[in-house]
Design goal:
Elements lengths: L3 E6 L5 E2 L17 E5 L1 H7 L2 H5 L31 E3 L1 H6 L2 H4 L8 E6 L10 H13 L4 E5 L3 H13 L2 E7 L4 H9 L3 E5 L3 H15 L2 E2 L8 H5 L1 H9 L7 E5 L4 H15 L8 E7 L4 H8 L24 H11 L2 E5 L1 H15 L5 H15 L8 E6 L7 H8 L9 H8 L9
Helix pairs in contact: 5-6, 6-7, 10-11, 11-13, 14-15, 14-16
Bound molecules: pyridoxal-5'-phosphate and zinc ion.
């Protein structure tokens, strides 16, 4: 790993050699998240746009030179990353004045990055893939994490692909599909009668007591590096012309912090000429970062959680520092959306771009719709929305967004009666 210079604490700036610390800054305990520091001069000599253009690798590993892995032989066999970036022309029109009112002038350049297409159907696979390689490099055979659901199912899947054992902590409220993924991949599932925040604390203690390798967000410094890969892909897929804004949903803040890191990497290497504004979207019922951003602080006041977007139902965002700096330092914003706006966004995204997102997966798009409605997006802006999780993860919410299908007797009489009711008024 000659391209990795060390690990730097985001709180105090102390630097450590890679072999010196496993997870966090010893001076700050669990709060001292470390950032991986690279030798960009060396990387710049190895990684060029031309070389990437010739690289047939269809996964995050096309950026191995920018990832903290020592042994490419340990890369798991699942295809992680290089997900589609769809140009969403029908959505561009939908967000025009005819459907949203006169304050919007619509959009001309909108893309949707569909990370519901990852092997376990969420963005978290990007981080789990790197986490699994690190566990193997360290010779560990047991991993653990706490998760609202997706990091868990993702770790379970990636671990199954290389034969690692997992102990996974989830809150009792995790949707059934995500729990089913854990069980089928053979994880040891520990369901906690409490919130995600409580599951997280318990998992940290357990990993210390039993010596399991931790895939916890904002604790293991290598996970953010996996999460940055979507930013690398977006810019490459846009032929290195960075977008003006990227909208993404935020819970712990790891994804947005990772995107920021990826964009900074590309700026440092001279691959892109400007930083896109990072637009963090939270659910109104779980929006501690929106509040902290508005108040200009990095301190979080824990909130009482109340949202159906389970993946971003986080009261104490573990990666808050990076998450807030990502938005502040790129001139972005934090936006809160209601559950109703999220359900609307799920429908519009599915009907206008055929991308089926779980609630947290659609929250980024809901944030964009809200700002467009408020007339705050210039139609010339080039905008990317990241969909972070697949809708099949939580079909109950999808049905909530749409209503149930019609049920009729198998007769033409019943069918004719029903046909009289079409088109269905809410079919938009
Ligand atoms: C679908 C989905 N979207 C968004 C997020 C938020 O990511 P982060 O907690 O890194 O902010 C998660 C995290 O679990 C997720 O599963
Ligand atoms: Zn420190």
């Amino acid at each position: 790993m000659d391209h990795v210079l060390g690990l730097k604490c985001v709180l105090c700036g102390a630097e450590y050699d890679v072999g010196e610390v496993l997870y966090v800054c010893p001076k700050h305990g669990d709060e001292g998240i470390l950032d991986v520091v690279y030798d960009y001069e060396l990387i710049g000599r190895r990684l060029t746009k031309e070389r990437l253009a010739d690289d047939p690798t269809n996964s995050i590993w096309r950026y191995a030179d920018l990832l903290p892995i020592a042994d490419p032989g340990l890369i798991p066999p699942l295809q992680v990353g290089w997900t589609p970036l769809y140009r969403a022309e029908r959505l561009e029109k939908r967000l025009g004045p005819s459907s949203l009112g006169r304050r919007t002038k619509g959009l001309k350049h909108l893309w949707v990055k569909d990370d519901g297409r990852e092997p376990t159907a969420s963005y978290k696979d990007r981080a789990s893939a790197v986490g699994v390689v690190k566990a193997l490099e360290l010779g560990r055979d047991v991993m653990t994490c706490a998760s609202t659901g997706n990091a868990a199912s993702s770790l379970a899947g990636l671990a199954a692909s290389v034969g690692l054992t997992t102990y996974i902590f989830v809150p009792q409220t995790a949707p059934q599909a995500k729990v089913a993924q854990l069980l089928i991949f053979g994880a040891n599932v520990i369901m906690v009668k409490g919130t995600y925040d409580q599951a997280f604390d318990l998992c940290l203690e357990a990993s210390k007591e039993y010596g399991w390798y931790s895939r916890n967000t904002a604790y293991n410094p290598y996970l953010s590096e996996g999460k940055k890969t979507a930013a690398l892909e977006i810019c490459e897929q846009l032929r290195w012309e960075a977008p003006d804004r990227i909208f993404v949903s935020v819970g712990d803040g790891c994804i947005i912090g990772g995107l920021w890191k990826g964009l900074k990497d590309l700026c440092t290497l001279g691959f892109i000429g400007k930083m896109p504004k990072l637009m963090g979207v939270q659910a109104e019922g779980a929006a501690p970062l929106v509040r902290a951003w508005r108040e200009g602080t990095e301190e979080i006041e824990p909130v009482v959680l109340n949202t159906l977007a389970d993946s971003i139902a986080v009261g104490v965002p573990r990666d808050r520092i990076k998450a807030l700096r990502a938005v502040r330092q790129t001139g972005g914003e934090y936006v809160a959306v209601s559950d109703e706006e999220i359900l609307d966004a799920m429908r519009v995204l599915a009907r206008g771009a055929a991308v089926f997102a779980e609630p947290a997966g659609a929250a980024g798009f809901a944030g964009l719709v809200k700002l467009v409605q408020e007339g705050r997006i210039d139609p010339e802006e080039r905008i990317v929305v990241v969909v972070t999780g697949n809708g099949l993860k939580d079909v109950a919410s999808a049905i909530k967004a749409t209503g149930k299908p019609h049920l009729i007797e198998p007769t033409m009489e019943d069918l004719r009666q029903l046909m009289g009711q079409y088109p269905i008024p809410n079919n938009r």
